[in-house]
């Protein structure tokens, strides 16, 4: 299965580069150019490397807003 359609890079090729020591999408890109054109494959490369995709900024901001609005737990006062 293709991971990077721009450069015709397959999952097997990404895994081979990972087995050879590549541990980041940038290192994969250096090895085979995957992720350097349109960038749509970078999240898939991250997943193959076991790194997980970074959350989108708006989701992070929503989470911060939810935390800010959540009621705080009452803690017992120190004696």
UniProtKB/TrEMBL annotation:
Keywords: 2Fe-2S, Electron transport, Iron, Iron-sulfur, Metal-binding, Transport. The keyword S-adenosyl-L-methionine does not apply. InterPro entries: BFD-associated_ferredoxin, BFD-like_2Fe2S-bd_dom, BFD-like_2Fe2S-bd_dom_sf. The keyword Electron transport applies. Coiled coil: none annotated. Residues 2-50 form the BFD-like [2Fe-2S]-binding domain. One of its GO terms (molecular function) is metal ion binding. Pfam families: Fer2_BFD. Belongs to the Bfd family. This is Bacterioferritin-associated ferredoxin. It comes from Streptomyces tabacisoli. The lineage of its organism: Bacteria, Bacillati, Actinomycetota, Actinomycetes, Kitasatosporales.
